[in-house]
Write a structure and sequence with these properties.
Four Helix Bundle (Hemerythrin (Met), subunit A)
Length: 163
């Protein structure tokens, strides 16, 4: 019999019901719970969101001028780059809420199909938020933000044993 894919999932049936995307085998298989897997991907994605707007700054101001800027001037001629920076800032601000919730779930050994799905939804919601914030799509941006908040509430309720 194959060992469980993720620590914290209580049965093979639980794992088999999940879409393969939620039970991705990686070299970490067996050491990360699904929730920690999605937290890790979310953190990595958030940590890389600065790249496009910094590349824009390097192109716009030239590498030397962009690096040699004692005032930290973040103005840009490209509105899209400014929105990328704001989307990244928003992702960081929300990661500060999401990450402790996931870590608290792990410490309390709370794991269910709801918490796994919520963490995966959070990753894709934050990705969608960045993608729609960049060109400035207003309604979808707000909806993706609201879904992210709903996921945070869901995780908190699971942690409190209310769902």
């Amino acid at each position: 019999m194959e060992p469980p894919l993720f620590r914290g999932s209580n049965s093979i049936v639980f794992q088999q019901r999940l879409h393969p995307l939620f039970t991705h085998r990686s070299w970490h298989a067996g050491t990360l719970s699904p929730e920690l897997y999605w937290l890790t991907l979310t953190t990595l994605m958030t940590g890389l969101m600065w790249v496009p707007y910094i590349v824009n700054r390097l192109v716009e101001k030239s590498p030397l001028n962009a690096i040699w800027d004692p005032q930290g001037d973040t103005t840009t001629r490209v509105a899209r780059a400014d929105r990328m920076m704001r989307a990244h800032q928003n992702a960081v601000e929300n990661l500060v809420i999401f990450a402790p919730l996931v870590l608290a779930l792990q410490m309390a050994s709370v794991s269910s199909s709801t918490t796994v799905t919520a963490c995966a939804v959070y990753f894709f919601t934050r990705l969608a938020h960045y993608v729609v914030f960049t060109p400035g799509i207003p309604v979808v941006r707000v909806l993706t933000f609201a879904v992210g908040v709903a996921v945070q509430i869901t995780l908190a309720l699971a942690l409190l044993g209310l769902i």
